[in-house]
Design brief:
Elements: H1 16-27, E1 42-47, H2 53-64, E2 68-73, H3 85-94, E3 99-104, H4 109-116, E4 121-126, H5 132-146, E5 153-157, H6 164-175, E6 179-183, H7 198-201, H8 224-227, H9 234-252
Parallel strand pairs: 1-2, 1-3, 3-4, 5-6
Helix pairs in contact: 1-5, 1-9, 2-9, 5-6, 5-9
The structure holds phosphoric acid mono(formamide)ester.
């Protein structure tokens, strides 16, 4: 079976037009002005890994669209008793799930779910693979600050190899010809020398913005003056996660064509 229409498994297979369609729709979404686009639908949030931002903003987004949400986390569910990924999928399908949002430590888990369950599946982060909703909200944040992608240079700094956020961001930004600079240690070393400090930030353009998907590790990745400084857009990213995830959920039930 191929993935149900409306699934969002990664950015890798989305073209620029599809990405722009989601971002444009997100601009019309406002969690303070609920729209009943998912009225009566059941959105299952299936989280095998911890999350604060992704889980809560999908929940806020789903509720703002009139959906009911059901949260299943590994701890405290039958996943702890050894229930398989697919059996959990069949179970939530039997309970009437209309959309499944899944985060899983294994790359490809959402794809397996989507191949077997005829419900739109949204990847909320899978192993080292992709984090598509994060890439979309980051793109949305970039566009709100910079208006267009053309002519931008984006430096992604840190542990790129283990970052699903970086992987999805690279797929997305490359669709629009953004120059991407990847900066990090060639191998993982205990003493990481890529901390963003105020002195290093001064070497970037004056109007450069600092983004981070969160959770931030203060004192290791960013110094406090950068994380809380005027160029930081970290909490704006969090806020933008809601309208973007409203658009992703609306797309899942066929409201974006
Ligand atoms: N950016 C992100 O995925 O954060 P959470 O792990 O808190 O969802």
């Amino acid at each position: 079976m191929s993935a149900a229409r409306g699934s969002l498994l990664g950015i890798e297979h989305l073209d620029a037009a599809e990405i722009l369609k989601i971002l444009k729709f997100a601009r019309r979404m406002n969690p303070d002005k609920p729209r009943p686009l998912l009225k009566g639908k059941r959105v299952v949030l299936l989280f095998y890994e911890s999350s604060t931002r992704t889980r809560s903003s999908f929940e806020i987004a789903a509720k703002a669209l009139g959906a009911h949400t059901v949260l299943i986390q590994a701890a405290g569910s039958s996943i702890e008793k050894g229930e398989s990924l697919l059996d959990t999928g069949y179970t939530v399908r039997a309970l009437g799930a209309d959309v499944i949002v899944i985060r899983h430590p294994n790359a490809g888990a959402p794809h397996v779910m989507a191949r077997h369950i005829d419900v739109p599946v949204i990847n909320a982060g899978d192993g080292l693979h992709e984090h598509p909703s994060q890439a979309l909200l980051d793109a949305y944040t970039i566009l709100r600050n910079k208006k267009k992608f053309q002519g931008l240079q984006v430096a992604i700094i840190g542990d790129i190899f283990h970052s699903r956020v970086a992987r999805s961001a690279c797929h997305l930004l490359s669709r629009f010809g953004v120059k991407i600079i990847l900066c990090g240690p060639p191998e993982l070393v205990p003493e990481m020398r890529y901390q963003m400090t105020a002195a290093r930030l001064k070497m970037a353009k004056k109007d450069a913005i600092v983004m981070h998907p969160g959770p931030i590790i203060r004192g290791l990745e960013l110094t406090d003056d950068v994380a809380d400084g005027a160029q930081a857009r970290i909490l704006e990213e969090v806020r933008n996660g809601v309208p973007v995830r409203m658009a992703i959920l609306a797309r899942a039930v066929g409201k974006i064509r």
